[in-house]
Design a protein that fits this description.
This protein has about 270 residues and is an alpha+beta fold.
Length: about 270
């Protein structure tokens, strides 16, 4: 198979699954952004993007990372409208993406980080589609947490198509969970609210209903989509259900706080450049 050059130019013969996968990992390792692959390879559709995503998961596992869960991207209407993509994506979480509580945004690892509030599930039971409903999905959840995902993108200005973003593991970067975990029976997740505060000013708010009407719907969607790809959500996995609001920039020196109704607050500082 052909491989991309160190400069990020298309390899001789054009892009393919293996060369795009290799280039995306290089961009991540080198903190280098690029134009979407679909500018040069318009045939890079959603299924091809997922094939690239799965190939890079295998490469991550080969280099010692551990698969710990899944994340959803573009589950809220706000995110879909901003990015011009109108359906959610599923991607992988590994232990290399965990941001320890109290640590700053890892500026030295990311290209242009943004923060978004998330409702996070820890799974008590295996969940395997197809045909999973919201009620079935929620019955498999052990605990619910507030969290923050620090998204990143290997594409300039977060410009991409569905195939591009699926290949890029749905703009994965890092994530952190808050201080309080509760059984789902103790929460009305459609009404669980969050306030997004940046440098002391509240800039956005939302409820869990912003995530596919209910975060459990996002969980069911993930289980059903993964079944199409031959996977299931395993017991013990972490599931990030998707940004409740639009993401906010997280430059060095910034301070972001996400205040949930019942799930506590998550604080992230932008660290140093």
């Amino acid at each position: 198979m052909s491989t991309a050059s160190a400069t990020g130019a298309a390899p001789e013969g054009g892009w393919d699954i293996e060369s795009v996968a290799a280039e995306l990992l290089r961009c991540e390792d080198e903190r280098r952004e690029r134009e979407p692959f679909t500018d040069e390879w318009p045939e890079l559709d959603l299924d091809t993007g997922y094939a690239i995503q799965d190939l890079n998961l295998a490469k991550r596992l080969e280099r010692g990372e551990k698969l710990i869960g899944v994340k959803l991207g573009l589950t809220s209407r706000a995110k879909q409208q901003r990015m011009g993509v109108h359906f959610p994506f599923v991607a992988w979480l590994t232990d290399a993406m965990v941001l320890p509580v109290g640590d700053p945004v890892p500026q030295g690892k990311l290209i242009h980080p943004r923060i978004e509030p998330e409702i996070v599930f820890v799974m008590g039971e295996r969940l395997e589609g197809p045909g999973i409903t919201c009620a079935q999905a929620m019955s498999a959840v052990e605990s619910v947490w507030g969290g923050a995902e620090v998204i990143d993108s290997r594409y300039k200005n977060f410009r991409f198509t569905a195939g591009d973003v699926a290949a890029d593991n749905a703009s994965s970067g890092a994530f952190v969970t808050g201080p309080i975990g509760l059984p789902p029976s103790e929460l009305d997740l459609a009404l669980e609210a969050v306030l997004v505060e940046v440098d002391g000013v509240v800039v956005d708010s939302a409820t869990g209903a912003a995530v596919q009407g209910h975060p459990g719907e996002a969980l069911a969607l993930a289980a059903n989509d993964l079944a199409r790809r031959g996977h299931a959500i395993e017991a013990g996995w972490i599931v990030l259900t998707g940004g409740m609001t639009d993401a906010v920039f997280a430059p060095p020196g910034s301070s972001t706080a996400l205040h949930f109704t019942n799930l506590g607050s998550v604080f992230l500082n932008g660290g140093e450049g």
